[in-house]
TrEMBL record:
Organism: Rhopalosiphum padi (Bird cherry-oat aphid)
Cofactor: FAD; FMN
Protein name: NADPH--cytochrome P450 reductase
Cofactor info, note text: Binds 1 FAD per monomer.
Membrane topology: Single-pass membrane protein
Listed EC numbers: 1.6.2.4
Family label: In the N-terminal section; belongs to the flavodoxin family.
Residue spans crossing the bilayer: 20-39
Length: 681
C-alpha cells in the first residue's frame, strides 16, 4: 500500500518537474521498495521470536526472554544451581511436583530450578556434565491415548528423532498416569529408557504415580528414596534444614488503577472485553449459552443439554473433539474462606516471585483481589496434598491441631493412614480443613500461594459441525454428592452451568469461557465403513455427533455404512437421554440397530456389556468380516475394561484364534484406529 502510494506521488512529481527523468524516478522507486521489504522482513523476523503468547506457568522460561534465555544451562551456571526439574503437565500436578522437588534440593545443597521443556532448548542437556554434581529430574504426565502433554511434545519428538550424546547427564524420572487407561505412564517410561539409551546415567529408578489410587502417596514415597539415591550417588548428606521459605512475597496493590487489575482473565488483561483470535487454553472464547435444558424425564438426578454459540469466533471443531469449559468457584465457598480467616476479600494484592531469576513472576494473573483469586484462579474444592498440611502447621495455635497436621504431613505409616482417612476418604477440601481445625489461621496470601490452579473441565462434544457449524453441544450430568462428614460437595463446572439459563427477553445471554481441544476420536474417513458405538449414560455424547454426521451424509445422497449403537441407563422412563432423536434415526435408517440396556427396570441388573456378549455374531461380522470400526465412550475404570475383555473373547471364539492371537488382533485394531476409546475415570 505504501509502495503504490509512493508510485502515485512520484508520477505526479514527474508531471510537475520535467527536469527529473523517468529513469531517476524508476531508480528511486526501486530503492524505496527494496528498503521497505528489507525493513518489513527484519521486523517480521524480530517479532516472530516474541510471538508466543504470555503464559502464566510456574518457573517456565518466558517467551519474551526466549531468544536469549532458552538455554537453561546458562541460567544454571549464572545462578550457581546444579538441579533442574522439568515437567510435562496438562493439569498442573506434574508442575506442582516439580516445584516441590526443586524446593527440597536446598536440603541436599543442590540449588534447584523448575523448567518448562517447551520453553527450553533441550539439546543443552548434553552440557549438563559441565556443571559439577548436576542432576536433571523429569516429572512427566502421560495424556490422552499414550501421548505426551502439549508442553512436552517437542522434547518427546527430539528424543525420538535425535541421537545426542548424553553421557555425563545424571537423571531421574517420575511419571504421572492412571492405571485405568491402557497406556499407563507410557511417556515417562519411554523418556526414562531413551535417556539411558543416549548415554545418560539413571541416578534413581523411575517412579510411576497412579492417579486412580493415591498419586500423592506414590510421589512422596518415590521422592524420599530419590534423595537417598542422590546422597549415595554424589556422596552428600542431608543438611536437615527444613525448607519452608516462601516462593512468593506479598505486594500491596491498593493503589493500582482499576483498569490494571485482573478480574478472572486467564492470561491477557481485559481479554474477555477485547476478544482476539486464535482461541486456546491461554486465550479462551467467551461463548454465549443459547440452550440449557434438562434431559432427564424424572428422578432426583439431572443431566443437561447445553449449546454454546461460537458464531463469529472463527473456531472450528470436528466431530469427536472436546470442548474445555473454564469454571469458577461458588461464592458461598469463597465467602466462607474470608469469614474463617477474617480477611478482606476485596483487597487488591499481588504475589511476586522471590527468585529474581525466575521468569514466572506470579503464580496466577496479578494484581487481583483475593475474591478474584479464590473464585477464578485457585482450586478450593479438591483434596489438598500433604505439602499443604506441612505448611499449615505454623498457623495452628492449638497443639492438637498442630499434631494432627504434623502427622498427616509425615511419611510414616500412621501419617499416611491418617491423611488417607481424614482427607481422602472423608473428602475434605481446604474449606473443610479450616472449619474442622479452627485454630488454623493461615495468612490468606500464603494460602493463595499454596493452593493449586483451578483447571478447566473437558466435555465430549455431542454435535456435528456439519449440522451445527455455529454451535457446540455438550451433555453434562450435574455432580452433587454427600461426603462421610455429611457435607454436600458440588461439581465446580456443572453446578455453574446449571445456573446459566438463557432467557427469551432482551437481557444479555449468560456466557462462559471455552476453547476446543482436538481429539483422535474420529469417524472412519469413508462414510460407508460400518461402525459399532458403545456409550452408556453420557458416553452417548460423541456418538450423537457421529450419528448426526452420518445422517447428514445420507441426506446428501451418499452411501453410509451400518451404525450400531449400544446405550444404557438406569430407567427408560427416567434417564433415557435423547430418546426421541435416537428413535427417529432408527426410523429413517441412519441408525441400523439400537441396543438398549436399562439396568434397574427389572429385578436383575442389565448392562450394555451383557448385550455385547449376546450379540457376538453381530460384533464379529462388523469388526472381523467387514473390517469395521468400534468405539467406546464412558467409564474407564470398569465399563471400558469389561468391553475390551468381551471384544477379545469374541475375536477368539468367532475368529477361531488363541488368546494371544486375539489380543494381537485387537491391538492391531487400536493401532489402525479401528478400536478407539474416549474414556474417563
Amino acid at each position: 500500500m505504501e509502495n503504490s502510494e509512493g508510485v502515485k506521488i512520484e508520477s505526479t512529481v514527474v508531471t510537475e518537474e520535467p527536469l527529473i527523468s523517468a529513469l531517476d524516478i524508476a531508480l528511486f522507486v526501486v530503492i524505496i521498495t527494496v528498503a521497505y521489504f528489507w525493513y518489513f522482513k527484519r521486523d517480521k523476523q524480530s517479532s516472530s521470536s516474541e510471538k508466543k503468547p504470555y503464559t502464566i506457568q510456574p518457573s517456565s522460561l518466558s517467551s519474551i526472554e526466549q531468544t536469549s534465555n532458552s538455554s537453561f544451562i546458562k541460567k544454571l551456571k549464572s545462578t550457581g544451581r546444579s538441579l533442574v526439574v522439568f515437567y510435562g503437565s496438562q493439569t498442573g500436578t506434574a508442575e506442582e511436583f516439580a516445584g516441590r522437588i526443586a524446593k527440597e534440593g536446598a536440603r541436599y545443597k543442590m540449588k534447584g530450578m523448575v523448567a518448562d521443556p517447551e520453553e527450553c532448548d533441550m539439546a543443552d542437556l548434553v552440557e549438563m556434565k559441565e556443571i559439577q554434581k548436576s542432576l536433571a529430574i523429569f516429572c512427566i504426565a502421560t495424556y490422552g491415548e499414550g501421548d505426551p502433554t502439549d508442553n512436552a511434545m517437542d522434547f518427546y519428538e527430539w528424543l525420538q528423532n535425535g541421537d545426542a550424546d548424553l553421557e555425563g547427564l545424571n537423571y531421574a524420572v517420575f511419571g504421572l498416569g492412571n492405571k485405568t487407561y491402557e497406556h499407563y505412564n507410557e511417556i515417562a517410561i519411554y523418556i526414562d529408557q531413551r535417556l539411558e539409551e543416549l548415554g545418560a546415567t539413571r541416578v534413581h529408578e523411575i517412579g510411576l504415580g497412579d492417579d486412580d489410587a493415591n498419586i500423592e502417596d506414590d510421589f512422596v514415597s518415590w521422592k524420599e528414596k530419590l534423595w537417598e539415591s542422590v546422597c549415595s550417588h554424589y556422596g552428600i548428606e542431608e543438611t536437615g534444614e527444613e525448607s519452608n521459605i516462601r516462593q512468593y512475597k506479598l505486594v500491596d496493590c491498593s493503589e493500582v488503577l482499576p483498569e490494571r487489575i485482573f478480574s478472572g482473565e486467564i492470561s491477557r488483561l481485559k481479554s474477555y472485553e477485547n476478544q482476539r483470535f486464535p482461541f486456546d487454553v491461554k486465550n479462551p472464547y467467551l461463548s454465549k449459552i443459547t440452550v440449557n435444558r434438562e434431559l432427564h424425564k424424572s428422578g432426583d438426578r439431572s443431566c443437561m443439554h447445553i449449546e454454546f454459540d461460537i458464531d463469529g469466533s472463527k473456531m472450528r471443531y470436528d466431530t469427536g473433539d472436546h470442548v474445555a469449559v473454564y469454571p469458577k468457584n461458588s461464592s458461598e465457598l469463597v465467602d466462607k474462606i474470608g469469614e474463617l480467616l477474617n480477611a478482606d476479600l476485596d483487597a487488591v494484592f499481588s504475589l511476586l516471585n522471590t527468585d529474581e531469576e525466575s521468569s514466572k513472576k506470579h503464580p496466577f494473573p496479578c494484581p487481583c483481589t483475593y475474591r478474584t483469586a479464590l473464585t477464578y484462579y485457585l482450586d478450593i474444592t479438591s483434596n489438598p496434598r500433604t505439602h499443604i498440611m506441612k505448611e499449615l502447621i505454623e498457623y495452628a495455635s492449638d497443639p492438637k491441631d498442630q499434631e494432627k497436621l504434623k502427622l498427616m504431613a509425615s511419611s510414616t505409616p500412621e501419617g499416611k493412614k491418617e491423611f488417607h482417612e481424614w482427607i481422602l476418604r472423608d473428602n475434605r477440601n481446604i474449606v473443610h480443613i479450616l472449619e474442622d481445625l479452627p485454630s488454623v489461621k493461615p495468612d490468606l496470601d500464603h494460602l493463595c500461594e499454596l493452593l493449586p490452579r483451578l483447571q478447566c473441565r473437558y466435555y465430549s462434544i455431542s454435535s456435528s459441525p456439519k449440522v451445527y457449524p455455529k454451535f457446540i453441544h455438550i451433555t453434562a450430568v450435574l455432580v452433587n454428592y454427600t461426603t462421610p462428614t455429611n457435607r454436600v460437595n458440588k461439581g465446580v463446572a456443572t453446578n455453574l452451568l446449571a445456573q446459566l439459563i438463557p432467557t427469551n427477553d432482551e437481557l444479555p445471554q449468560p456466557t462462559i469461557p471455552i476453547y476446543i481441544r482436538r481429539s483422535q476420536f474420529r469417524l472412519p474417513p469413508k462414510s460407508q465403513t460400518p461402525i459399532i458405538m458403545i456409550g452408556p449414560g453420557t458416553g452417548l455424547a460423541p456418538f450423537r455427533g457421529f450419528i448426526q454426521e452420518r445422517d447428514y451424509a445420507r441426506k446428501e445422497g451418499r452411501e453410509i455404512g451400518e451404525m450400531v449403537l449400544y446405550f444404557g441407563c438406569q430407567k427408560k422412563d427416567e434417564d433415557f437421554i435423547y430418546e426421541n432423536e435416537l428413535q427417529e434415526y432408527v426410523a429413517n435408517g441412519t441408525l441400523t440397530k439400537l441396543h438398549l440396556a436399562f439396568s434397574r427396570d427389572q429385578p436383575e441388573k442389565k448392562y450394555v456389556t451383557h448385550l455385547l456378549e449376546q450379540n457376538a455374531d453381530e460384533l464379529w461380522n462388523i469388526i472381523g468380516e467387514k473390517s469395521g470400526h468400534l468405539y467406546v465412550c464412558g467409564d474407564a475404570r470398569s465399563m471400558a475394561k469389561d468391553v475390551h475383555s468381551i471384544i477379545v473373547k469374541v475375536v477368539m471364539e468367532k475368529g477361531q484364534m488363541t488368546n494371544s492371537q486375539a489380543l494381537n488382533y485387537v491391538k492391531k485394531m487400536e493401532q489402525q484406529k479401528r478400536y478407539s476409546a474416549d474414556v474417563w475415570s
